[in-house]
Write a structure and sequence with these properties.
Blueprint (H helix, E strand, L loop, with lengths): L2 E4 L5 E4 L3 E7 L3 H14 L2 E7 L2 H14 L5 E6 L8 H11 L6 E8 L4 H9 L3 E6 L4 H11 L1
Parallel strand pairs: 3-4, 3-5, 5-6, 6-7
Antiparallel strand pairs: 1-2
Helix pairs in contact: 2-3
């Protein structure tokens, strides 16, 4: 099913998929609030969930597996530096059960880190779709939609 979306820049994109869920994984509550508003305004997802660490994100992903199907798409925006379970640990844990997921997913590492090692590590991880700098803006989201959806 093809949906039309008018984005803030007044560009119209035809997307073959509207995401079922966007999962924001970041311990910065203000940034989660900002990104949630941005995604809501762009109307690209049926549900937006935010978690404060990788452990809660893993639990949410497992719950989603019970309610979503193979045609559903989940976008995961993952911070690197978080308490309890950081982004790298999340990716290691996620790898253990990613083949069992009933739905499609794309993981975007979303970080304020400008450390070239972090960027390279993210880009070399087969689970990561892309590395994005935070905070996101409508142009950045538009670019992601054009490239990956």
């Amino acid at each position: 099913m093809e949906a039309l979306f008018i984005l803030q820049s007044q560009k119209i994109f035809k997307m073959s998929k509207k995401t079922s869920t966007i999962l924001l994984v970041d311990d910065d509550l203000a940034l989660n609030f900002f990104h949630k508003r941005l995604f809501t305004k762009l109307n690209i997802s049926e549900e937006i969930v935010s978690t404060n660490d990788g452990y809660d994100a893993i639990e949410n992903i497992k719950l989603l597996n019970n309610s979503l199907c193979k045609n559903d798409l989940v976008l995961i925006f993952l911070d690197i530096n978080m308490p309890v379970m950081d982004g790298w640990d999340f990716l290691e844990n996620f790898k253990q059960f990613s083949n069992e997921l009933k739905y499609d997913y794309k993981i975007f590492v979303l970080s304020s880190s400008i450390n070239p090692d972090d960027i390279e590590k993210a880009k070399n991880n087969s689970l990561v779709t892309d590395y994005c700098s935070k905070p996101l803006n409508s142009d950045g989201v538009n670019s992601l939609l054009e490239r990956y959806l």
